[in-house]
Amino acid sequence: MKKLVSILATIAISASSTSYVLACPSSKANEVKDVVFMFDAAAGTNANIQKQYKKIVDDFNAANADSSIKVTLETPTAGAISGALASGESLPDLYVTYPDNVVKYLASAPDEALDMSTVMPSTLKPKLQSFMNEGKLTVDGKEKQLVLPMAKSFDFSAVNLRLLKELTTMAITKISSVSKLGDYLGNSNIVVSDLYKNELPENFKLVGDEEKIFTSLANAKNQDDVKKVLLLNSNLATISGFMYRLDREYKLVNADKMGTGSKIYGLGIDSLSNKVFSEYAELLKTDSIKTLSENKDFLYNYYDNKFSVNKSTGLGGLQNEMKFLQQLKDLQGKDSASLRGDTTLDSKDTEMLYVPTLTGKKKYSSDFFAAGTMLLASGSTAGSFYYKSGNKVNKDLKVTFDDVLVMGTPTDKGEAYTAQQGPGIAGFKSSSEDKQKVANKFLEYLLSPEKQAYFGIFTGYLPSNEENYASDSDYVKWIKGETKPKDENGKEQSRSNPLLKQYIDMVNSGDANHFFTVEGSPLGNGVRSDVLTSVIQNKMMDDKAKDVFLKDSNLTDYFWGNDSTELKTRATYAFNSILTDYDPNGSVTYKAQLPSVLKEVNLLDRKED
User: Fold this and answer.
1) For residue 281, which of 293, 326, 483, 516 is within the disulfide window of CB 3.0 to 4.6 Å?
2) Per-residue buried b or exposed e for 512-531, using 16+ beta carbons within 10 Å of the residue's own CB
């Protein structure tokens, strides 16, 4: 008989007592003789990803045709695993998911969850420790490896070198100490773009740190010199302000070269939440931000059945990001305008920063970057194939892969701390020893360098296996265009991607770049979506006051919220909503209910179910 936690426990971890139902496996469950490999709908997917997993499953079954137990791929609707946990139906032997989801399932079936360290195949030798750290979860005060790394995506920043060269060339005409571009931007391989009219007017003056920044860029000897400048939040904000003035004050844009619907942005950031996490990783100097144990220097913790928001000690990373956003707002210089600005497609006016909205017609920063009208775009390596221009872009603005410099996430100190994430492989204990053996054999096959390389090259994800990062590996040869992989029909396909090659070089560079992950938490997705994305990315970007993000170095009510109608649904409200969505029976108690004062707040002392 299978012991399962009650249906209430599928959405909550009980503090001191847990209700159980004893459910005999149904006849349907008994009929499942094959190994079930499931794509957890909560992890998100697309047709191409499913196709690549299906090919791996089909290839495995073909290679093991004499086995009476096959592997079947299932792609159910959302809630399938939670529903099976609640009803006593059979569970997948292996499934693709994120650690946040595993924490929830673990609460419901602690005895059913598979400790993946006990089945980790010898074929898996992770390139980075953070790949393994992402799947380690703190359970009863101890770390357990509950997810193994498969496909990885990284945040990355793409720099349009053609546009950077144009901006620097214009700026140094106003700098007496610089007569020409140095070795890097002066390279003839970087063809200057033509987004702006050639000469700055006589009355144009560099302001603030513009002279210092453009002098450093002009004198750059190599790409590392450029990265040192552009990895700093403050420098990026200043350059974005420079672009804003070129258009808004001096009308120097060659608008006739811009395509329909294109628009100039200094910067684009697809995920402000990942950038906030990068600020924390830089402050904490860590490759794994802990959330399931006490970590008062981080924004939130969930441990000992309490959800805590560290308002006195854990705001450093968030404040550093808000300082960056406030600098952009100040450089914009319009108290009555939002930082998002005019997003209508018929407006070609320059804006400081683009972040996607829930209702925007253009979803990613890469849309504007590929149009040649954005200097820096931060997004996921999984979408790196979209950072080059299409055929309709004017040749004077067109961006090829060779025109792009790849680097990590800009932060307050510019120390190259970059988030890595991606769904991995978790499991439940199989119903028979024979099924478990087949599941283990399939896991070894799935996580082998060969299968990870094939999956990665056709999905845009990076493999987790160390072998795939070697210069003579099939994967790197495919990325470099030296050879071509064959698709499911046996046809060779070009998958050359110099952007991913640059990123592989970053991963191989050792201490020059830092890659981190955030420990999974049952409330982690809620904080990311309801606080960092909804409040900052979708609401504060539209606020029009002078001090939207920071005032006197403190977070404002535009973040925390207050009793006024327009600010009720901000961070304090969101934190409470995350909690009550997770556990409708939970109560909220505050140690200090001072939304505008930095005090520690424990949001929950959980009641017994």
Assistant:
1) 516
2) ebbbbbbbbbbbbbbbbebb
